[in-house]
Design brief:
This protein is of the alpha/beta class and about 250 residues long. The chain is about 25% helix and about 25% strand. It has one domain (about 15-250): Spore Coat Polysaccharide Biosynthesis Protein SpsA, Chain A (Alpha-Beta Complex), CATH 3.90.550.10. It has 6 helices and 14 strands. The strands form 3 sheets. Strands 1, 4, 5, 6, 8, 10, 11, 12 and 13 form a 9-stranded mixed sheet that branches. Strands 7-14-9 form a 3-stranded mixed sheet. The protein has a two-stranded antiparallel sheet with strand order 2-3. The protein is globular and about 45 Å long.
Length: about 250
Amino acid sequence: MTQPRTSRAGIKQAMVLAAGLGTRLRPITNRMPKPLVPVAGKAMIDYGLDALADAGVTRAVVNVHHFPEMMEAHLAGYSHLDILISDERAELMNSGGGLKKGLALLEPGTVYVMNADLFWVGENPGEAGNLERLAGFFDPETMDMALLCVPLERTTGHNGKKDFQLDPDGGLSRYQDGGDNPVVYAGAIVMNSALLDDAPENAFNLNIYFDKAIAAGRLFGLMMDGEWITVGTPEALPAAEAVIARVTEKA
């Protein structure tokens, strides 16, 4: 990416969850944070930041813990978003607590939430990207959260776990063996920040809110375009880079 992103109407704010330790990616993460591990010559987190900028986001909060100075230096050099740091040096807040803390740095309203170590390539040229499609899909009247999802066969580096099953109307429930239309959570959410107004201030897992939304019939999913990639171990890097090379060659 060499050209600045042009802003579009829509969601302007995002929270990127980037504070994990990346223990399975050792020994690489003994010397750098997982989000900065290069995949096909590009820091892992930059795939997600670029997707947010392409979708019209102008400001993002990124939480830091592991090698925080390296993270801050890298993010200071990222020119396509105004990036604020949510500092978790003193204490890791888990996914839910980290999101709650980070959202306090943004204006109330609808936001994207993304994991820094999950990304996709190969969206359909000339069409709305996955994040824009997810924003258009989200209906605050009927949904607490809209999750980007992917079928298992379009994942690389995944452990094979099926997270949810996607109903014909887009509703999500926890996957049960033998269930129809199993999907993997692709690491991107659209939600209103007010959903976490009543959340605890300490560490907690965001899965609590997934389950609350399922119980209320308010968790929905949208199938993404392209190929989804996660790099959890050093051995997963070659496969990830092969997919990127294949998709790039087709483009």
